[in-house]
Amino acid sequence: MTESVVQTQEVLVGAEGALRRLTLNRPKALNALTLGMATTMTERLSAWASDPAVGAVMIDGAGDRALCAGGDLRGLYDAAKAGTRFPEKFWADEYRLDLLIAHYPKPIVAVMDGVVMGGGVGIAAHAAYRVVTERSSVAMPEVSIGFFPDVGVSFLLARAPGFVGTYLALTGERMNGDDAIHAGLADIHIPATRISELPGALANCRGAGEVTARLSEISVPPAPGKLAAARAWIDACFAATTVEDIVARIEQRPEEEARAALATMRTKSPTALKVTLRNIRDARSFERLEQSFQQDYRIALACIAGHDFIEGIRATIVDKDRNPRWRPETLAGVTADIVERHFQRRRDGDLTF
Question: Which segments within 25-96 are labelled E, that is strand?
Fold first, then answer.
């Protein structure tokens, strides 16, 4: 089959040989994920799963700046203000898409070129093959907007080496390709100049073995990151069981990177920090990825019903004053009851798959 492309409003759907391709197509918005995009991707992936003509799937982003910079925050903000049930639908469909990708019966290659944050990590990090380039900038910065690293990523971060995952979740620190591989969110590094070769290289692949071979042929070692070298102080500090203890340990460290991490954490939502730590610690005991998505759904809906998430979006993308007013303002003010509210089972039941 020669390459063909069908354009929908927000997703490009292409085919070359046995390869099927989904390209997130909102480049001006750094391909931020909308409900419509999630619906289109789910429909296509579901149809291809049992199609014998399909050997592999590739997911990438339009333009050269991002795979996906996150979810539709403005849509969530407007829905919260209007009191609609859009957030429930958005997160349910997004999380089901991510889980579909995680358990997909055919190889999915996610191209994490450029910015990959939030919902973009959810799409990419659960794929069978996670490709990074020298332009990759990967992060889960949700604590900056009074939210938490969702999309099931706590399941992955809880299994990162040492306490790197906790560090990334509580600081929102950006990773280059090497860091993303070290943290377990990516697998393979390919130069950005060779990404255009991927459709042709994967066009006739049938099964994981052939995909692995084709990717290996054009992969090269990534430039060194900083996570591996910082493991000593990261593990020593972020192994603590409370956010307050993590802060206290960082205060005693001489490293400049530790001081930078502390300064960063002090700008984040205190509630989001405590909820995030609890979530990633819980995820260490989860046996199935579904458990993280179910817990994420509980937390997400609690966040949008509260104060800090809406305030964080207001300060970041609505008024853009970069001056969120968190409530409570301090870690000491975030009681155990406040944290627990985010983890309570919903009256209408948990998210099902």
Answer: 56-61, 66-68
